[in-house]
Structure formats: structure tokens, C-alpha cells
């Protein structure tokens, strides 16, 4: 039975604790034992937080016995991407520049989740300073992809995805600036939720581009995504998913997401769309020109802020960085302040137009990634290939960040392919209901 726990959803584990069938201490012990015994452990976890986690599990067990559980996830383990501050525990964001960085306090979302009874397993590896969608990190570790041992897992929440896909956490908490929750979720057959910018606190989260940084879970199903969203906000009540149906829903396939779309992601997406139609959804198609304008401005919108945030640390020790990541950061120094402000003003106009054009739909849908997970060694050996694949990886997910809304990726059933649902700002609960109905249709 204990081995079965490693593959149960977080919601199911929480119900087992509530029913007295699972003891949180036993559950945490099973997970820590599995992690320590796993041959890929050091490629997935940067460090374990066993002392803290076991103390949290013991407290959860006492609450369960007393009938005072704090919420549906009280006593359920979770992994944390290594950019969430944890008091007294190193938080290094996948970078040698931050080696030995030990914060004094928890990030707000960690504090909220801990208050809801979540049990921290450890900190997971990630792309260096979160600045890549590939998940390749030769400086610390490149976590594995569950479907291809030679491929990258997607980033930047690479270890977060691997911790769940390999049965070493029920869910992983990650961040998403341009696709960093959704790409590793899609490539490892998981559900990933990108929240609206500003919905979840970024205090205590190592920044990349604060204007676009968001926090979100990578997990086994849509119910878990809803439960973890609530926990990250310090709430026990999550979105009501009961009775969710696709009957009468209207989806817009954003044809901009077909740019350079390769065969396998196309097949997974189109198969998923047919199942949505069979479940009662109306699906239309359109190309929205302003999205192309927004994508064309991505470098101006992202890299100057990223470089401004990290310039002093980078230029003090540039030799510590993976050269591909270093080059991406330094690209931000080539733009002027006027370039950035003009792009930000233009993006604000684009968002208004985009939301006007899509207001009549329940969600915009598109393939989560245009490509399959690339081979890690080829990315290391071929600079042009690295640049091309990284940009293609993030092409579709960035649309959700640029338009400022919420986004949810679900597995299509074809390995390492996903279908993404994009909604307007603060539409998470509505999007999760759509996701729950779509999940049933895709099963």
C-alpha cells in the first residue's frame, strides 16, 4: 500500500489522511525513503528538507488525530522549486552565483502552504535563474524527462516536474515567466497551472522578470491544481469542480500557435480537440494579428528587466554561468529605456485588443509546446540548435504571459504533448472548471 501512495494524487492522499487511512508521518517517511533510494535523486532534488518536513508531518498527524486539520492538503507532501525562499535552508535558483545563499524567512507562498499543513520534501533543480524553457543546466544538474532519458525535461521548473513524474512528490511548486510551469508539465505528462500575474505573492521568490513572474503548481490532475492554488493563497476552500461540463462551451484555436508546429505536438493537440468536440464543445479557429506583434516584442519586454535585475551579480562573476544563459541575460543590455517603455505601452494596447477579440470564448486553446523535448547533448554541442529550440519551446506558452491571463496545460494522451487553455486575468477558478471537464473528456 505504501508504494501506491507515491502515485496517488494529492487530493486522494488528503482524503486518505482525513479518513484515518494514511498517517502523515508514514506518508512523509515513504516519500523521503523513495527519494533517497532513487537513482536519479540527485538530478531531481538539489537538497532535501527532511528535518523540517518530518516536523511538519508530525504536526499534521496530531491535527488529524484531533480532528483539527487545516484543509484538504494538511499532511500532504510537496516539492519546492529552488527559487522559493525557505528559512535557514539554501535557496540557490540553479545558479553557482547564489551558492550558499540562505534566506532568513519563508517566501509568502511557502508560509501560506505551510500554514495549510503542506509537508515540504525539498528543493528541486531548475534552469539557471529560471531563464530557459528547456530545463538544461550544466552548472548544477539537468533533471530527467520521464519519456526520454536523453532529452531535457522542460524548464525552468524542471526538477519540479521530474519530482512528480518519477513518483518522488505528489506535486511540485514552480514558477512561470514565459512557460516555466507549462513546458515541463507538458513534456512530462502533467497538469500545470500558470496563475495571473499578481495573484500570488512573489515576496521571497528569486526574481527573473518580476513584471511577468508568476507562481503555480505542477501536479497529477486538475483537482490538485485547484487545491494547491488555494493552499498557496492560504485558503482551505478551492474552486468547485463538481458538475463541470463542456456542453455549450466555446473554444478558439489560436492559429498563431501553429507556427513551426511539429508533427507529434500537432497530432496530440488535434486528437485532443476532437475529443473536446465529442464532449459538446464548439471549437472555432482564428489568427489574431496583435499576438504576432506581442511575440515579436518578447526580447524587448523580457531581457532588459532580467539583465537589470542580475547585472551586478552576473558581471562580477560571469565565468560561473552557463554561456547560453549568460548570453541571454546580456542581450538585455542592448536595449534602451525608451525601447522598453515603448514596448510596455504597446503591450498594454495589445492586451486590450486581444481580450476584446476573445471575450466571446470560454478559453483560447493551442498546443502547449510546438516541439518535443530536445536531446540534451545536442543542445550542449550546437549553439544555433539551442537558440532555435529554446525560442520554439516558449513560443506558445509566452502568449499566456504576454496577454496577462491565466493558463492551464493538460496532457493529451500522446507522450510529451499538451493542450493549453488560456483565459483572461483572474479567471483561474473558471479555467479550472473547464480543465476538469476537459480532463474527463481526454481521459
Automatic annotation (TrEMBL):
This is Amidase. Residues 43-432 form the Amidase domain. PANTHER family: AMIDASE AMID-RELATED, TRANSAMIDASE. It comes from Sinisalibacter aestuarii. It holds the Pfam family Amidase. Signal peptide: none annotated.
Amino acid at each position: 500500500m505504501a508504494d501506491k501512495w507515491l502515485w496517488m494524487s494529492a487530493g486522494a492522499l488528503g482524503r486518505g489522511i482525513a479518513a484515518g487511512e494514511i498517517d502523515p508521518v508514514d506518508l512523509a517517511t515513504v516519500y523521503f525513503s523513495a527519494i533517497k533510494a532513487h537513482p536519479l535523486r540527485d538530478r531531481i532534488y538539489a537538497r532535501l528538507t527532511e528535518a523540517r518536513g518530518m516536523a511538519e508531518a508530525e504536526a499534521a498527524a496530531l491535527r488529524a488525530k484531533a480532528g483539527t486539520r487545516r484543509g484538504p492538503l494538511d499532511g500532504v507532501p510537496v516539492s519546492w522549486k529552488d527559487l522559493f525562499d525557505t528559512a535557514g535552508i539554501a535557496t540557490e535558483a540553479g545558479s553557482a552565483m547564489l551558492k550558499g545563499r540562505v534566506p532568513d524567512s519563508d517566501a509568502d507562498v511557502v508560509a501560506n502552504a505551510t500554514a495549510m499543513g503542506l509537508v515540504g520534501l525539498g528543493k528541486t533543480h531548475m534552469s539557471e535563474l529560471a531563464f530557459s524553457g528547456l530545463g538544461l543546466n550544466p552548472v548544477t544538474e539537468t533533471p530527467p524527462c520521464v519519456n526520454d532519458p536523453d532529452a531535457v525535461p522542460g524548464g525552468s521548473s524542471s526538477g519540479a516536474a521530474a519530482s512528480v513524474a518519477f513518483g518522488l512528490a505528489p506535486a511540485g511548486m514552480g514558477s512561470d515567466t514565459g512557460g516555466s510551469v507549462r513546458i515541463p508539465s507538458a513534456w512530462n505528462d502533467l497538469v500545470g497551472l500558470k496563475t495571473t500575474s499578481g495573484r500570488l505573492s512573489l515576496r521571497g521568490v528569486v526574481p527573473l522578470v518580476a513584471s511577468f513572474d508568476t507562481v503555480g503548481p505542477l501536479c497529477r490532475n486538475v483537482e490538485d491544481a485547484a487545491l494547491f492554488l488555494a493552499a498557496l493563497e492560504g485558503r482551505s476552500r478551492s474552486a468547485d469542480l463538481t458538475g463541470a461540463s463542456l456542453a455549450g462551451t466555446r473554444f478558439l484555436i489560436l492559429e498563431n500557435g501553429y507556427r513551426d508546429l511539429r508533427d507529434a505536438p500537432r497530432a496530440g493537440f488535434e486528437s485532443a480537440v476532437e475529443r473536446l468536440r465529442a464532449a459538446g464543445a464548439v471549437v472555432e479557429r482564428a489568427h489574431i494579428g496583435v499576438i504576432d506583434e506581442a511575440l515579436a516584442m518578447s526580447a524587448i519586454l523580457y531581457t532588459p528587466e532580467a539583465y537589470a535585475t542580475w547585472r551586478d551579480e552576473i558581471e562580477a562573476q560571469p565565468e560561473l554561468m552557463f554561456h547560453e544563459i549568460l548570453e541571454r541575460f546580456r542581450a538585455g543590455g542592448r536595449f534602451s529605456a525608451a525601447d522598453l517603455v515603448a514596448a510596455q505601452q504597446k503591450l498594454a494596447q495589445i492586451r486590450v485588443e486581444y481580450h476584446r477579440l476573445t471575450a466571446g470564448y470560454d478559453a483560447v486553446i493551442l498546443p502547449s509546446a510546438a516541439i518535443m523535448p530536445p536531446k540534451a547533448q545536442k543542445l550542449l554541442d550546437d549553439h544555433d540548435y539551442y537558440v532555435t529550440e529554446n525560442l520554439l519551446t516558449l513560443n506558445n506558452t509566452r502568449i499566456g504571459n504576454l496577454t496577462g491571463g491565466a493558463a492551464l496545460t493538460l496532457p493529451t494522451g500522446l507522450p510529451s504533448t499538451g493542450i493549453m487553455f488560456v483565459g483572461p486575468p483572474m479567471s483561474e477558478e473558471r479555467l479550472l472548471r473547464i480543465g476538469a471537464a476537459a480532463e474527463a473528456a481526454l481521459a
